[in-house]
Amino acid sequence: MRLIESLPEFSQELASLLLKAGATNLAAQVAHLEMVTRCSCGDAFCASFYTAPKPRGSYGPKHRNIALEPNDGMIILDLVDEVIVNVEVIDRPDVRAKLELLFP
Question: 97: burial class by Cβ within 10 Å (0-12, 13-18, 19+)?
Answer without folding.
Answer: exposed
